[in-house]
Design goal:
There is one protein chain. The chain is globular. A three-stranded parallel β-sheet has the order 1-2-3, with helices on both faces. Helix content is 45%, strand content 9%. The two termini are 19 Å apart. The protein is mainly alpha-helical and 204 residues long. The chain has ten helices and three strands, in the order αααααβαβαβααα. It has a domain of 61 residues.
Amino acid sequence: MDADQSHPTLTRYYDGFTSAINLDLFESIDQIMEVALEQDLHVLIDLPAQSQRFLDRWIEENDVLALCNETDVKLVYWYTVDGGPDSVNLLDKFLAKYNPQLNCVVVKNQGYGSDFSGIEKLAHFNHDPLQTSVLRQIFLPALHDSTMSKINKLGLSFWAAINAKEKDSKHLELMERQRSRVWLKKSYAAIDGALEGLITHDIS
């Protein structure tokens, strides 16, 4: 599901597998739980920046976390960070609110930063034996700058980046496809590792 109305990445690249939702409307965001429960599917939601206040309202007014526990829906929040001070402060506030009750994977995006020491110093990462939720960290590797820029310029999905060839109107060169394939494999491995023990599904 794509909740980013300003930059609808999932809708643009994976239209056949994606539906748009509006975080301003409960009737729209309710689809998250309805699809997860009624269709028994794994649901991925792409959230825009500065969306936490909308998410907080929906979670609190509908007691979504309790509903997930009652219905055995495994909820995992993927929090992407770049290591900058704003990123550290926002993560600190998010974890202070949700860490005890919400499984969270902090994704250190090496495509946008390399120094994550501020993240690693947060007290939330000190192991609490009484904590029932899961808090994990992974590194999302950086793809070669010019290759990533070309993917964006051509408007390719990552699937198209590694599969489109010369006969297609838009494509990467052979070694660019290879770099993208290796990067995607590493990224899948990192994500699979973070999900170990949380859900039974191999995304790769």
